[in-house]
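FIELD: query
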Amino acid sequence: MCRHLAYLGPPLPLRALLMDPPHSLTEQAIGPQELVYARVNADGFGFGWFDERGEPLNYRRADPIWQDPNLQTLAGHLHQPQWVAAIRSATPGFGGDTANAQPFARDGLLYSHNGLIRGFLPRIRRCIQQRLEPAIEEGIQGTTDSEYLFALIRQLLADDPETTLEGALGEAFSLVAEWLGDEHALLNVIIGDGRRIVASRHAVNADSPSLYYTTDDETFPDGSVVIASEPLTDREAWRAVPPHHLLCVEPESPPELLAL
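FIELD: result
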């Protein structure tokens, strides 16, 4: 289990998400309030954005977010209209190295998964591998269920250029549910393409992990949307995403909730 967030709106300094709020992502690493399967998120962190060409970039570390000596400087000088960031509490059996830190950046997408897939090794990993073309599978650098789920989503998008992000997420979740049997999966995902963000609050055979969003918190610029595992500021300004729903966000449109 992890904690993650996303931002879409006018360019915002990274520290306004990672450090400044009273329950920032750095604070959630030490003192999460709604984490079910762990007590701290000390197994790595990362953040991602898009460059001027629309290519996804990321910065990831295997150590806790509070130990990075570079973060204060970076977070105060990087301003972007779209951010995805995550802190990690590693699932037992998956290494705590940089390759497994999120968000992942590949094929024009930023991606973060807060959750786990029980029975991933070896059965469900094999099911996913059987669906992947070599070019997609070659892009997997780590060992986690999260990254293999990302590869499955990218494969579904590649199979049908007309598929939307929300369509690929829904299809991937359906496939995982078929493969799980009596096992369970926690499937809170954030995925962005530089213009849109789609986030899920979902689980199979289990309760969905927490996920919130805000559109009118005065802490953040007008016209922005912030999505987070736990509210970064006063809870009264945040709304919970209903379980088994997608939250779809794009510029100059109100967020849309879609049932899975």
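FIELD: remark
Helices lie at 15-18, 25-30, 71-77, 120-131, 134-137, 145-159, 165-180.
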